[in-house]
Design goal:
eight-stranded mixed sheet, 2 domains, 10 helices, Arc Repressor Mutant, subunit A, about 300 residues
Length: about 300
């Protein structure tokens, strides 16, 4: 049951502060009825969740994933996710800021080069085989030990462990999903997606994003079209629609208020825009999606 609210809850961490290492290691032990995770919410940070036990469904921006274990889920800032738990769930959650994820001296220089964050067409889920799970568990044990220590240069060691963990997960992801290795075009698309996710409300010009990225509008358009089949403008519209869907389902804002929050000055135009992109009115989408996922305000 979802409580009545005017905005989607945002989960933050007390460690996501400038004066403390922006990294958290948490052991999960969750039961049915835990509203902290069963209520739709989003984060201000990146999260890697490794599920080792339990039954239920993980919903990430309206896409359901039946819980399997061991399975890894990747959550980017702003995504809305929640769980329907049928039996107690156990696992590990790693939470970290984008700045903490930067590895200047490596080939993996930023979050845009990681396939499973800010994805376009790629799943945010990775199932591990026994050998892969054992390798990841060894890294997690080392990370946990360092996280709970007060050793000198703790932040540097945690960043190094996170780097090794993500490189290994990237290898497994590429192998398990038969995806191509990292290339400049895919990195460019993820960088575009990351920027759009941060700025789409106030900036909807392909030229403006191309300028931020240091490339021409034509080059950006050609790469995105050839790799995804969509134009940059369509991906921007997709982001607007996704946020509209989140607000329609997970808040009690009126349709007009949602339109205003997304920079639509005319509520009727927002409704026409939404229906044109989804073949459904905002009101109908709200009703049908809440019924589908059993999300009913009180």
């Amino acid at each position: 049951m979802m409580k009545k609210r005017e905005d989607i809850p945002v989960h933050t961490s007390s460690l996501m502060q400038e004066d403390i290492v922006p990294f958290t290691y948490s052991k999960l032990s969750l039961k049915c009825g835990d509203l902290f995770i069963e209520a739709p919410h989003r984060h201000t940070f990146y999260e890697i969740i490794i599920i080792t036990d339990g039954e239920g469904t993980h919903f990430i921006d309206f896409e359901p994933f039946a819980l399997k274990h061991p399975t890894v889920y990747f959550i980017s800032p702003g995504q809305v996710h929640f769980w329907h738990i049928n039996s107690p769930m156990k696992g590990i959650a790693l939470m970290f800021s984008e700045d903490f994820l930067v590895f200047p001296s490596s080939s993996m220089g930023n979050v845009d080069e990681i396939q499973f964050f800010n994805t376009i067409g790629d799943t945010p889920e990775l199932s591990l085989n026994e050998e892969q799970a054992n390798q990841i568990n060894q890294l997690l044990n080392l990370t946990n030990k360092e996280f709970n220590s007060e050793a000198i240069s703790r932040a540097s060691v945690l960043r190094a462990f996170l780097h090794v963990l993500i490189v290994n997960l990237q290898r497994f992801y590429t192998l398990n999903h038969h995806t191509k290795t990292i290339n400049n075009e895919a990195t460019l698309i993820r960088k575009f997606k990351n920027l759009v996710a941060k700025h789409f409300i106030n900036e909807q010009s392909t030229h403006a994003y191309a300028k931020k990225m240091g490339v021409s509008s034509s080059y950006l358009s050609n790469v995105i079209k050839s790799m995804t089949g969509y134009s940059p403008g369509q991906l921007i519209r997709n982001e607007i629609i996704l946020e509209a869907k989140r607000l329609l389902v997970h808040t009690e804002l009126t349709i007009a208020e949602i339109g205003y929050s997304l920079s639509f000055e005319d509520p009727s135009y927002f409704s026409r825009f939404f229906k044109r992109e989804t073949d459904m009115s905002p009101a109908m989408f709200r009703q049908k999606t809440r019924e589908k996922y059993h999300i009913f305000p009180v």
